[in-house]
Amino acid sequence: MALQLVSPMSADAANNRLSGDAYYDAVQCPAPPAGYEDFTTYPGLVMTGSLEGCLYTKVITSKATPGGVYLESGEEVFVGSLDGGPVGTFATTYKFESKFDPDSGVQLHGRCQHPIVEGSGTGGFEGAKGRLDFKDIIGETVTTYIYRGHISLR
Description:
This protein has a single domain (17-153), classed as Beta Barrel (AOC barrel-like), CATH 2.40.350. Helix content is 0%, strand content 58%. The chain has no helices and 9 strands. A hairpin with a 5-residue loop joins strand 4 and strand 5 (88-100). The radius of gyration is 17 Å and the shape is globular.
């Protein structure tokens, strides 16, 4: 009797862990791609590491409380590559939570979750599924970001 193992993913699917850093830079990420012209709420976010490219954001909702909590949600599009592979795009939705000092307005911490919109991948991201999680690294003058996550490609 033979035991057969069956994988829930197709044989050509690739599961990849994601990690890297990110920072805003309108020079390196000048304009969002066609079809996403209104994804300009923030300058383009340069992503380095597993993902190399630019992330563009469109805020849909935001709310600040008198106690310093800030909540935001929206949509994004990433243009770039995975581990130096073919260039492509994928879209995400996101939810951001942060805490600011209510007196000074200085950010104390922040994080966000970005599930990849299934069916949104093009080029090197065709069939992309997964999620990115960002953590804000609060600096004296500049805030940068680290990301972790996973992506599978079919």
